[in-house]
Amino acid sequence: QVINLADYRPTDFVLERVDLTFELDPTETKVEARLIFHRREDADPAAPLVLAGEDLVLVSLLFDQMEMEPGRYHVSPDSLTINDLPKSEPFEITITTMINPEANTQLMGLYRSNGVYCTQCEAEGFRRITYFPDRPDVLSVYTVNIIADKAANPLLLSNGNFLGGAGYGEGKHFAAWFDPHPKPSYLFALVAGDLGVVEDTFTTLSGREVALKIYVEHGKEPNAAYAMDALKRSMKWDEEVFGREYDLDIFMIVAVSDFNFGAMENKGLNIFNDKYILADPETATDQDYANIEAIVAHEYFHNWTGNRITCRDWFQLCLKEGLTVYRDHEFSADQRSRAVKRIAEVRHLRSEQFAEDAGPLAHPVRPAAYKEINNFYTTTVYEKGSEVTRMIATILGADLFKKGLDLYFERHDGQAATVEDFVQCFADVSGRDFTQFSLWYNQSGTPQISVETAFDAAAKTFTVNLGQSIPPTPGQPVKQPMHIPLKFALLGADGAGLAPTTITGGDVSEDVLHLTLQNQSFTFSGIAEQPVLSLNRGFSAPVTLHFSQSPEALSLIARHENDLFSRWQALTDMALPVLTAAAKAAGNGSEIVPDAVLKQTLLTVAADDSLEPAFRAQALTIPSEMDIARAIGSDIDPDAVHRARQTILGDIALTGADTFATIYQSMQDKGAFSPDAASAGKRALKNAALSYLAHASKSPTAAAQAFADADNMTDLSQALSVLAQHFPDAEETQAALSSFESRFNGNPLVMDKWFSIQAGIPGEKALARITALMAGPHFNAGNPNRVRALIGSFAFSNPTGFHRPDGEGYRFLAGEILFHDKRNPQLAARLLTSMRSWRMLEKNRAAHAKAALETISTADGLSNDVRDIVDRILEG
Ligand code: ARG
Ligand code: ZN
């Protein structure tokens, strides 16, 4: 069943207030919902009240406290319909349902994880708790009473402020919570169990004291210190940068070990995958610290962008997610190195979102139709949504952008808003017309920009001819030209900036060319020497440039741009053609020719002590096998891509052996461990060098030594990863893997690193390794983190292993999808997206992939989630 944006209409009934009472029991939890409604003024006076439900047992139904006559209502597997309701007066419906948290393996609604009751309601999980108008435009004030066994559940939490609690006879107790802020059901949360707590306080801008609490498994309290610190920094930053203050007396985070995603922004009671809370130097990598900081901030920032202002319907998901990702990106950029953060964002955007946009699952930032909303929590909605927000900031400049956001907060506080509402605020403060810009929300596909330049020495003019085209995507064969803001700089031969006297050809603000036509020429006057154009600086627009710049021009940018992002981009632009040519050569058996300019430029940047180590580490990380495959675009042979990349890396490693040895020595940090960005950058550079050294020496000795010497998880796991990637069969590698296992087997989150490192080992033995690990003692198919670490890493990050030519990788994955679909459809659907680029493969592999997809497609009893993805992947 397809839901269409165009069909939106408000509900017939307004929900005035919600009173919930939970009597918790592992298998028989009773939920009483007292709902006060009135019919909307302009609604049909005969319209029934239709409430959504899923996997519920209806125990009783009251109308104004009296049992409802059976003829007045109708229950179906997914709804409760009530007729003959008052024309205008308020009325009360009391619904009692029975649910089974233990049996809830989907992890949507109320479930139990490790003995802790918790909830996940976004997007449509609340209907698995009680019958309800479970849609984001129904905002209401909630009171929640929780009754539970006191010994097993000393802790009873819900949204808002604590009202009180007491004993409740027979070893039970209760607690009551009241959330004064009207909210949609997807922001409801309940937690009950026995957990440890870390406490702190935060004093807001206006001087209110907020109690901060992070709940974790007993004994893990010290590992929540970094998350608490990140929370306080987020609260302060949101006040300083966006003027947003927190609005309740208490802010709580609960970490649980079974969770389908990263975390959830429930009002006042965020629930997290514990992977994104728990950290200490012994068990967390620098990446883990950065993720914790970003996700704690993201969920906190949702309090304004998502909760105070929510979405009218799920088509508007990017309204909260794109904006909140933009906010967390800015936060991390302010806390760390802005350029390095930007590089990481763009790497991620290209490898995930561009791939999505180029395949059968492509959809607009704001989709117009969906069959299963769970499948739209994508990098397009989140990350491209963030880039679209960033472009608004680029077009308006910081001051007007801030004014527009302030207007948005003022105008829509307490509402369920739309993308149009959001964009209108920026139009209103600037007087700009955003009609063409808004195509970014509605057209899918990555714009392809052609760039050609001409220099006229006599006339002292430099002309830039730009063309834009957006490839066809599912449901959108033809596109309109978009408004694409391209930041630029012109560099002279010495690398210094050139200032044109005038620029003609279209709208140009200071350092931005506004490409708005399909073909457009900008002419720069007063340019006395042949300039080098640096375009799309800072990645101002999420597009692909087709611009063949000479290696010399790219090398100039790589050495002299003052935008570090553009320097990195130039290195990537030098590397990709070399790598794709190498892959073609590897594919037809001819010799792979390394490129001298690329190698020299890369080594120069790597050795440049004036640059921050984190940036140098990024420079040394050449495009991945997936990046190369995407650049080739069709008839992909993953083995050839792998051989090509290894050959190029090997060549860099050999030439740069001394450079890498020097870097490796100079980046050793002898002091106490600190997770700060500068220290993390040194570790990143050191470990990048270690990987090249392993390549050059062809011996596991250095990595084995690094493994033995490591005093933190970043170094330890990087050394293990170098051993596993380069020397999978070496004794040193086996010894390191077992030592890691015996040291960390009590910590499942750390064992996930052990799983994913092994899952990523390339080559034909990969699948056998996966199945052996699945049969081993540490794997647990019921835990999403374990499944993602092992099976997800294999399918998403091991091209040669997964795409083996005999198709066994695909058949294995199909079996796993069908298995997981029975217990946790969202997890299964997400794993299946690893097959989305199957049409790009050479025809033998593509045929195997298609057959495996057909096995899934023809299986009985598929979930809506997997059905939707498999259909689109096979069709598109
Ligand atoms: N809103 C949550 C977050 O960004 C994610 C919820 C995911 N829900 C889902 N059904 N996929 O931050
Ligand atoms: Zn979010």
TrEMBL record:
Xref: Gene3D superfamilies: 2.60.40.1840, 3.30.2010.30, Neutral Protease Domain 2 (1.10.390.10), Peptidase M1, alanyl aminopeptidase, C-terminal domain (1.25.50.10), tricorn interacting facor f3 domain (2.60.40.1730)
Keywords, sorted A to Z: Aminopeptidase, Hydrolase, Metal-binding, Metalloprotease, Protease, Zinc
Peptidase M1 alanyl aminopeptidase Ig-like fold domain boundaries: 445-547
InterPro entries per record: Aminopeptidase_N-like_N, Aminopeptidase_N-like_N_sf, PepN_Ig-like_sf, Peptidase_M1, Peptidase_M1_dom, Peptidase_M1_pepN, Peptidase_M1_pepN_C, Peptidase_M1_pepN_C_sf
Catalytic activity: Release of an N-terminal amino acid, Xaa-|-Yaa- from a peptide, amide or arylamide. Xaa is preferably Ala, but may be most amino acids including Pro (slow action). When a terminal hydrophobic residue is followed by a prolyl residue, the two may be released as an intact Xaa-Pro dipeptide
Family statement: Belongs to the peptidase M1 family.
Protein name: Aminopeptidase N
